[in-house]
Design a protein that fits this description.
The protein is α/β, with parallel strands linked by helices. It has a domain of 211 residues: NAD(P)-binding Rossmann-like Domain (Rossmann fold). 37% of the residues lie in helices and 19% in strands. It is built from ten helices and 13 strands. The chain has a seven-stranded parallel sheet with strand order 3-2-1-4-5-6-11, sandwiched between helices. It has a two-stranded parallel sheet with strand order 7-10. Strands 8-13 form a two-stranded parallel ribbon. Helix 1 crosses helix 7 and helix 4 packs parallel to helix 5. The chain starts with a strand and ends with a helix.
C-alpha cells in the first residue's frame, strides 16, 4: 500500500482534507491538489511535513496536471465550484471549472493509465424531481448551471469508462456536513445555522421551511469514498450517497436550537430562492449493494460532532 500513489483534487477543502487524513492513516502516498480559491491550508496543517503527503497548488484546468498524476493508481476528483446561486450568476465560470476541469483530469488519468477515477457528483442533478426519494434509475433533470455541470462531468466519466476503459465511479453526494465546513451562502445549512446561533443572529429560512433534505455526515461520505477504492461492483456506476432519512429545514432548525441550549431562537423567513429544490433524499440501495455502504452517524450525533460538544 505504501507504494500506491493517490491524488485528491480539492484536497484542502472540507471533504478533501478529511479524505487526505484517511488516506494517510492507511499508508497511501497522497497528493493534494488545490488552487486554494476555496480550500484552506489550515485544513492540512496537521499533516504538513508528512513524508507521505505532497501538496500541489494547481487549478484542475491546468494541462500540466498530467505531470502530477504520473504513477498514480487512483484519482479522487473533489474540486469544483459549488453553489446553485453562484452558478446562476456566472454559469460560464462554473462550466469551465466543473466540466472542462473534469475533462482535463480524465484525459490526464487516461494518459497516465490511472486505474480508478472517483468523481464527487451531486444530488443536484435530479433537479425538481417530484419524488421525495431519488433513485439512480430516475432520469436526471438538472435545473441550474451547477447541476448541469455535475451531470455533464458524470457523462464524461461514463464515456471514459466505456470508450477508454478507465475505471470510473461517480458518487452523488446529498447534503454533506461536518467539522471544517465553512458557513457561506453555498455551504450546508447546518454550518449556517450553527454559526448564526453562536453569533446570536436570527436563523434565515428561505421559503416555508418544509423543504426536505438528506443530511449525511462527512465520516459516512469518507466511508463511501474509501469503499469506492476497492469495490469492483461500483466500477462504471453512478451511486447515491446519503442516509435515506428525510429531514425538513424546520425540523433541522429546532434540533440545532435545542442542541445549542436554547428553547427558542429568532428566525427570519425569506422568499424561496431561485433554483432551490423542494425534495432531496437518497435511495441508497445501490450504495449498499455495490459498495457495502452503511451510514452510521445519526443527525443529532453528527451535529454534536460538528459543533464540538
Amino acid at each position: 500500500m505504501e507504494s500506491e500513489k493517490v491524488v485528491v483534487t480539492g484536497g484542502a477543502g472540507f471533504i478533501g482534507s478529511h479524505l487526505i487524513e484517511a488516506l494517510l492513516d492507511r499508508g497511501f502516498r497522497t497528493v493534494a491538489i488545490d488552487n486554494f480559491s476555496e480550500g484552506r491550508m489550515s485544513n492540512l496543517d496537521n499533516w504538513v511535513g508528512n513524508r507521505q503527503l505532497t501538496i500541489v497548488r494547481m487549478d484542475v484546468r491546468d494541462p500540466r496536471i498530467a505531470r502530477v498524476l504520473r504513477g498514480a493508481t487512483t484519482v479522487y476528483h473533489l474540486a469544483a465550484l459549488v453553489g446553485v446561486q453562484g452558478s446562476l450568476s456566472d454559469p460560464r465560470k462554473v462550466n469551465d471549472v466543473n466540466v472542462d476541469g473534469t475533462l482535463n483530469l480524465l484525459m490526464a488519468s487516461e494518459q497516465n493509465r490511472v486505474d480508478r477515477f472517483i468523481y464527487a457528483s451531486s444530488a443536484a442533478v435530479y433537479g425538481f424531481n417530484k419524488s421525495v426519494v431519488q433513485r439512480e434509475s430516475m432520469p436526471p433533470s438538472p435545473a441550474t448551471p451547477y447541476a448541469i455541470s455535475k451531470m455533464a462531468a458524470e457523462t464524461y466519466c461514463k464515456m471514459f469508462h466505456e470508450v477508454h476503459c478507465l475505471n470510473t465511479v461517480s458518487l452523488r453526494f446529498f447534503n454533506v456536513y461536518g467539522p471544517r465546513q465553512r458557513a457561506s451562502p453555498y455551504s450546508s445549512v447546518i454550518a449556517s445555522f450553527v454559526s448564526r446561533i453562536l453569533a446570536r443572529k436570527p436563523l434565515i429560512i428561505f421559503g416555508n421551511g418544509r423543504q426536505i433534505r438528506d443530511f449525511v455526515f462527512v465520516s459516512d461520505v469518507l466511508q463511501a469514498l474509501l469503499l469506492s477504492l476497492e469495490s469492483e461492483q461500483a466500477i462504471g456506476k453512478t451511486i447515491n450517497i446519503g442516509t435515506g432519512k428525510p429531514t425538513s429545514i424546520n425540523e433541522l432548525a429546532r434540533s440545532i436550537i435545542h442542541l445549542l441550549g436554547h428553547k427558542r431562537f429568532p428566525v427570519s423567513r425569506k422568499p424561496a430562492r431561485e433554483g432551490d429544490i423542494r425534495h432531496s433524499c437518497a435511495d441508497i440501495t445501490v450504495a449498499k449493494k455495490s459498495l457495502g455502504y452503511r451510514p452510521k452517524v445519526e443527525l443529532k450525533d453528527g451535529i454534536r460532532q460538528t459543533i464540538g460538544f
